[in-house]
Design a protein that fits this description.
The chain is an alpha/beta fold. The chain is built from 13 helices and twelve strands. The chain starts with a strand and ends with a strand.
Length: 353
């Protein structure tokens, strides 16, 4: 598969006058300085010297709400990326913004500067959740923005959050299903993290907001992941990276941050998919003729569970939790965990011999 490198250009809180309860953009990006177009140029130059033959190279504006900048500011940044794209040094330009900061004037400008992908911070399709999180837009803004974005022919992505105030498993599932209906090419799933110096932190301290437990966050994210994945939507990210938040001590409160959150979610998906396969194999093994060990004792058949290399650690589970679970649940069977790279990501096979 052709490689795809992303050059991230963070524009912390720049362009965003909003005050979402969970947001401390300066802390999320661990950067406080305003980034200028010239900074963007030197960020791209630095990355280009290290990328080598990276396949597709994409410059991505992350952080605040890009299209909330004035048109002049947007144009200054985009003039830099267009110059690099026109020279063939980068292939794609990507930015993230809010659904209510999309209109025809903005999209005309993005088109003129050869932007490829617009990622919308949707967070939830449940208006109760959006209001309780002080997002300042409704789900209607999302449908309107996506309709326009599609009309202009941009690729687009949708970011969703799990565990916002007023959120439930049902509203998470509804948000994933609505996302599928809009058919973005990519999605990101972020469990809510309570950051210092946010309204959410005050709500947490006063008891008005109770963060999800890690288990709840994983199980809700898992359901959303399955819906998006089954629809063929690329899930670019699950959970924040440590480098997104570490950098200013004390940024993490509550229990929903985990450095391997994606593995926790994919490990649960693997467990759900593998368990019935082993159960069926264990039943078949019971009916097989038993071979004997040299000492005459019973030698149960070997049950092998297979995944590709990429999903092997998900099959085993974080800190081998799935392996331990299966060995206990199917005690008396000889289980082996093996690799078969002909299997697709997230697909498993069980054999008996
Ligand atoms: S719109 Fe984005 S950057 Fe602005 S306050 Fe909300 S989360 Fe933060």
């Amino acid at each position: 598969m052709k490689k795809h490198a992303i050059i991230p250009i963070f524009i912390p809180h720049k362009g965003c006058p909003n005050d979402c309860v969970f947001c401390n953009q300066r802390k999320i990006t661990a950067r406080t300085d305003d980034v200028t177009a010239e900074d963007a140029r030197s960020i791209i130059d630095t990355w280009l010297t290290t990328l080598g033959d990276a396949g597709t190279v994409e410059a991505a504006f992350y952080g605040g709400s890009f299209t909330g900048l004035t048109i002049n500011e947007q144009s200054e940044f985009l003039a830099v990326t267009k110059e690099y794209k026109d020279k063939g040094l980068i292939d794609k330009v990507h930015l993230s913004t809010r659904p209510d900061y999309i209109d025809r004037d903005i999209l005309d400008n993005l088109k003129a500067f050869s932007v490829d992908t617009i990622e919308l911070g949707v967070q939830s399709f449940d208006d109760v959740v959006l209001k309780a999180s002080n997002r300042g837009h409704t789900s209607a803004d999302v449908y309107r923005a996506v309709k326009l974005i599609r009309e202009y022919g941009f690729e687009f992505g949708i970011q969703l959050m799990i565990g916002l105030p007023g959120d439930s498993l049902e509203s998470c599932i509804m948000s994933a299903e609505e996302t599928v209906k809009l058919a973005p090419s990519l999605a990101r799933l972020y469990p809510t993290i309570v950051l210092d110096d946010t309204k959410l932190y005050d709500m947490y301290v006063s008891g008005e907001y109770v963060p999800l437990t890690r288990r709840e966050a994983v199980m809700r994210t898992k359901e959303m992941y399955k819906i998006l994945d089954d629809a063929g939507i690329t899930i670019m990210r699950v959970g924040l990276k440590s480098t997104d938040i570490i950098g200013e001590g004390g940024a993490i409160n509550g229990g929903t941050y985990h450095p391997a959150f994606r593995q926790l979610v994919e490990g649960e998906i693997a467990k759900d998919r593998i368990e019935p396969l082993i159960a069926e194999a264990a039943l078949a093994a019971q009916n097989m003729e038993r071979r004997k060990n040299p000492d005459g004792s019973d030698k149960p058949p070997e049950i092998s569970i297979w995944s590709n290399t990429k999903w092997y650690s998900n099959m085993i589970g974080h800190k081998a939790c799935n392996k331990l679970y299966f060995c206990e649940r199917f005690a008396g069977n000889r289980l082996h965990f093996r690799i078969n790279d002909e299997l697709e990501d997230g697909k498993f096979m069980v054999t008996i011999e």
